[in-house]
């Protein structure tokens, strides 16, 4: 029996299903989570399908989470989407179910769950949810609403089809999603718009980005700077890809100060592999899009040095 068959068998078996995703969710985390929930609710109206995790205001246009009692988990199937490692799963109760399934497209460095379906080459977890639907489409329903969610996830994780994980298959999936006639323009406008505060922070990033001749770049966003723009950590998502628009920049780090004065590190690349660097600093992720943590300015300086080394090596081997 294939992994997908096993997953479908479990979905059919359980009447209670809770779907989790990662903390600090992005459109793919929410799109794959609520997209899968929507497919399962439409296909099995008698089952109780719940989605949990912190509700994020800026992404509530995608959907909302459910209130779930602790005892709901007793005989529930738990599916965690888009989350490489257990500490990042939003809502610790994911361990309390009767059976646990991991569905993800990040490198499987931290395996967990009774069944794992991990496809590193997939553009997004939303693409995987579509593939799952496609495999069992005689028994599953894909509504325009489910398609809207999965499309938002794919657009989010591919940077609107810019990143290398975008494949011919990704475009085929989008074509099938579009067959449902969801309002694609509305999603595109949402994904392309920003608040005035983020627009002004973008100007700050371009103005103050430290760009090295070797191709590495970085910027440090302290709490003081974020307060100046009336933004918090979550508001920085919209500026993460900006340094990559500069033609000479090959990889970059954005350090965002947290309330405890440590730093969240957002690493991105157009070539040099940066996830090994992320792993050295309490993080991980994809080869070209990772996250890490820096305890203080010493660790920030270490990360900047290591990033420079990667950029130099990449430049030499090009
Ligand atoms: P972010 O910069 O938070 O958008 O994260 C980019 C990617 O890096 C995500 O898709 C995650 O796979 C990964 N990531 C971010 N933070 C961590 C972390 N602390 N540990 C492991 N992976 C992370």
Automatic annotation (TrEMBL):
Classification via InterPro entries: DDH_dom, DHH_sf, DHHA1_dom, Oligoribo/pAp-PDE_c-di-AMP_PDE
Taxonomy, superkingdom: Bacteria
Any single Pfam family the record assigns to this protein: DHH
DHHA1 domain segment(s): 236-311
Domain DDH: 16-154
Record GO terms (molecular function): nucleic acid binding
Record's protein name: Phosphoesterase, DHH family protein
